[in-house]
Amino acid sequence: MKLKFWVDDYYKILKEECIPIGHTINPNIAMVTSFGCHKDHDEAVRRMQEGFQFFSYGLGHHYIFGINKPGRTNIWEEFQKNKIKTEGRSTIHAQAPSNTETPGIGTPEELTAHLKKFEKTGVDK
């Protein structure tokens, strides 16, 4: 997991170079990971896939490629149109079979293994 490098570097910089502007800082790292669980891996992927794709699309819309008109832009509608254009090139493991890794989506055992990777890097607060 590449995350370990970034976490270690972050805490090293805090320790060696950080000059707090106040009395204390909260050095914890905040992040988002997908999380969808079902006893059947394929069912978990089926249920969660579109929601996670839309979440990624929404982030991209707001921060990379979208032109947003508050109260007018229908991001869901745009997502549906663009999803049809990119069928087969999903960013969130479309139609992932049981033997495919889908981080954050899967059986309780798969999710436990996934979350333990975060714990090992110190991103588990």
Task: Outline the structure in words.
It is flat, with a radius of gyration of 18 Å. It has a two-stranded parallel sheet with strand order 1-2. Helices cover 52% and strands 3% of the residues. The protein contains 4 helices and 2 strands, in the order H-E-H-H-E-H. It has one domain. With 125 residues, it is mainly α.
Question: What descriptive keywords fit this protein?
Answer:
2 strands, 125 residues, 4 helices, two-stranded parallel sheet, mainly alpha
**Rg calculated over all Cα atoms:** 18 Å
Helix-residue proportion: 40-55%
Number of helices: 4
Quaternary form: single chain
SSE succession: HEHHEH
Globular, elongated, flat, extended or rod-shaped: what is the shape? flat
- Low-confidence residue ranges: 90-97
Count structural domains: 1
Number of strands: 2
Provide mean pLDDT, rounded: 83
% residues in beta strands: under 5%
Which strands sit side by side, in order, in the main sheet?
Answer: 1-2
Distance between the ends: 18 Å
The major pleated sheet works out as: 2 strands, parallel
Which structural class is indicated by helix and strand composition?
Answer: mainly alpha
Q: Short description, anyone?
A:
The protein is mainly α. Helices cover 52% and strands 3% of the residues.
SSE inventory with pairings:
Layout: H1 3-17, E1 36-37, H2 41-65, H3 75-85, E2 105-106, H4 108-121
Parallel strand pairs: 1-2
